[in-house]
Amino acid sequence: MPLAVARSLVAAVVLVTVALEVAAVVLNAGVAAIGQPLLYAVSAVVQAVAGAIIVWNYPRHRIGWLLAAFALINALFSDAGLAYGLRGYVEGWPGATHAEVVGLTSWVVNGLGLNLLFLLFPDGRYLSRGWRWVPVVWFFGAVLAIPGWALNPRLGQSLISGVNPLATDTFPVEPTFVLGAALICVSLAASVVAVLVRFRRSQGVERLRLKWVMLAGALLVLVLPTSAALWTAWPPIRYAPALALPLLPLAVCVAIVRQHLYDIDLVISRTVAYGVLTGVLIVTYATVVLAVGAFVSSPVAAAAGALVVAVAFWPIRSRIQDAVDRRFRRARHESRQVMAEFVERLRRGDAGAETVEDALRTAVRDQELSLGFRSGEATYDVHGRPHQMDQVPGRRITSIATGQQVMTLVNHRDADAQLVGEVAEAGRLALEIASLQVELRRRLEELDTSRSRIVAVADEERRRLARDLHDGAQQRLVSIGLDLRHAQHALNGSAPPEVDRTLDGAVAELGNAIDDLRELAAGLRPASLDQGLGSALRELAARSPIPVEVRDVPDRFPRELEAAAYFIACEGLTNAVKHASADRVVLRFAREQHQLVVAISDDGSGGADARRGSGLLGLIDRARAHGGGLTIDSAPGTGTQLIARLPCA
Amino acid sequence: MRVIVVEDQALLRDGLVRLFTDKNHDVVGSLGDTSDLYGLVTVTQPDLVVLDLRMPPTFTDEGATAARTLKADLPQLGILLLSQHVDRSSVVDLVAKPGFGYLLKDRVFEVDEFINAAERVAGGGSALDPKVVSALIAAQDEGPLVRLSARELDVLRLMAEGLTNNGIASRLFLSTRTVEAHVGNAMTKLEITDSDEHHRRVLAVLSYLRATR
Lengths: 649, 213
Known about the structure:
The complex is a heterodimer of chains A (649) and B (213). Chain A is an alpha+beta fold. Chain A has helices spanning 3-28, 35-57, 62-91, 96-105, 107-120, 133-150, 173-201, 204-230, 239-244, 247-257, 264-293, 298-328, 330-348, 356-364, 417-426, 428-491, 497-524, 533-543, 559-578, 614-625, and strands spanning 370-375, 378-380, 395-402, 406-413, 548-551, 585-591, 595-602, 629-633, 641-647. Helices cover 66% and strands 9% of the residues of chain A. Chain B has a 6-stranded parallel β-sheet, sandwiched between helices.
């Protein structure tokens, strides 16, 4: 059935039900007390609307149609029919008494709705083919019970007229009714068994749904017999069924459409807890009032009872709640316990916040649960690695606000939504610490990246400067020198000797200037570095004022890394010469487990300290900019050994 | 001597052309890069090509690449590479070839020495800048050269610069016989036994090449 048709049809059913119930209330007005018809009208309308909401969402859902259809049947026969009978009797309308009989008999049909609801809830299908016989049994029961009830002369006692117009003695009505009612009872009992069987087998969302209906069913089971028992003794109890009956369709509707709306376990546990609490308090109150009343006047006894109850309320409430939680919400109780213990271990320092994911997995019993921390544009896992969180069927991602910068995301099973929320709340401290750690790690990484970038830019700048010196200034000086030599040649000895000497001197100065520039450029960034670390270092050693031994230069590394190693060696060498008065320096290199190791050893005075002077600090910075580090071993009198470790592929 | 000058900086190129012209050499062509060099060499048949090491398009070692190409086809052609600083690795396979020279640009200030070196290269000799030679020696850490005495190394270095025994003798203030003795010892230590004198000298320079690898 198309969605639009289904919605129109179910809307029509609701409208007709409302119209019938309005009619029933109007007809009842002035004939009987208005309270009960009004409540039953509300009950029927609630059921029709509950069915309509289900159909609105799932147009083919049998439960929705079942609720709506039986609301209509109920409105037509039980409420409107009975009302017509009552009013018609007073006004002398035709068929009034017959309508009254139909109204009083309609419970047989209405009960079938309940029967089917129990059998088909929550998915509109029977548990198995065998269960199809249950409504058939009801049907045969109804075939017997309806004539046995409607044609029974005893029904006259319930009619206003006092006489059943359909009464007959052509067949044994009483045994017929008893047999039919027995069949109906069997069928009803079987449908209740069906719900229980279904509940035992259910899990996940289906279990949640069944819990809703069982809660409403349990309340009905409590209310209906109680109100029947007190029907005549305490007339106000007659409102109870009308108040309790709409609970079932409401529960069905919530269970199907919004089963996650409330935590059903919480609702059940609170209901049970407060029920028990009420009972305990009433008994306590009564006991105190009776006991004290034996000695003093009743107002004092009542006050004493109230006092005792008031004082006992909170302790008793928490005791009962705890006991009920342990019984009805055992899994949650334990889950929260696991998380609380983890937070306690975290406080004591026995657990790291990064293990919060494992703790959550244990608490929720879901090994696929994963945590993500959203910071900036990306999501990271507990270890700060980029982490992709995908939405998959049966699972969902819930976000939990932790701190101002980071959003914590939990990927969990659909059915665990409530549980995860509670456990996360219990482990809030751990989650916040973990998220802060992730954020901190990310910031540090950003810092490292930007430091590397700055060093790379500086190195590139040196490179550019060195090249500009070579290709610009030096070339110009050479061409000026050539011009001077040409001028000298053109003069061809005709100039005074001092002019010739001046020109010679100028050319020699140009040569010195070019040498200076070459040295400067080499200091900025030796061009030989383009040919590899080895040749740059040997050139460095050749220029050094003290003997430098270069050992074991490994093969080529990325350009930035070679530059870093070179400048570290260079600065280390300068330190050794300038500050340590060393006689000899050894530069050693090694490739060790994805690291380029640079060791600079001298035989100087030692006592180097990074805190004094910027040279060593610059070295440390340079090593860190490449994700590495630098250690300084320099006891006074033992020379200095600098070891830089630079990560490489 | 017929000369081609290849240099990307126009002022410097003009200066070099003038330098050779002033010394009565015939500059048969000048270029700003190496793209048309091979054709020009084929047409003009020069004795010497003077090449800047770094030229467009990449400014790394275009000169050395061109030198290698030319040497492969025309081994007799003299090639004189010029550069602003010593670039050892670009030329390390070229230094031992006859008719090859590698000088820093500011050597042009000593006009006569420069022209001599150019003529030596055009005649099949070699001319290596002292700085190039020191770079070659600094670059080697072990190998046959460690067996040489300091004096023998000096002699070998000057030999690599392209000097004759007489030239070496006057530079080191030694007698020619002493130089010859040093050369002989160096050859023995380098295990160079070839009888041809020119070839022996080439092989000695080749030792630098091996030692730098």
